[in-house]
Amino acid sequence: MATARPAPPVPPAPPAQRRTSPAEACLPRVQPHSTTLIGSVQRAMRLLEAVADHAYGAPAKQLAREVGLALPTAYHLLRTLTHDGYLRREKGLFFLGEAAERLSSDAVRQKTSQHEG
Fold first, then answer.
1. What dihedral angle (degrees, nearest 10) is formed by the CA atoms of 99, 105, 106, 110?
2. Residue 103, CA distances (Å) to 7, 43, 48, 57 in order
3. Taking residues 6-28, what's their average pLDDT?
4. DSSP 3-state assignment of 87?
5. Which DSSP symbol is given to 115?
6. What is the pTM of this model?
7. Per-residue pLDDT tens digits for 58-111
8. How far is 83 from 85, CA to CA, in rounded Å?
């Protein structure tokens, strides 16, 4: 009577490669296990930068894909950013909101005052 040999173990599949979005291209590379960074803040900032890359707005699905987020996570962050005025939503597209525009104008003002002094 022949004994059956166990099948050789199947190596795990390599992790999926994620494309870098234009918003991520200018972000510094950070160690993934850093204990001082808050991931949700990083993800929200990547979404803000992705929205800023689209002058004519972008839908949630596109933004999630560009920054490499699961769609439910992107929806939660986009909803929060919209609630706080950093984004606005019109006809399913996301645009920078008044709070983000204030940050931008404040940044220009800071740069101007730095060069004057």
1. 160
2. 59, 18, 12, 19
3. 56
4. strand
5. H
6. 0.65
7. 999 999 999 999 999 999 999 999 999 999 999 999 999 999 989 877 767 777
8. 6
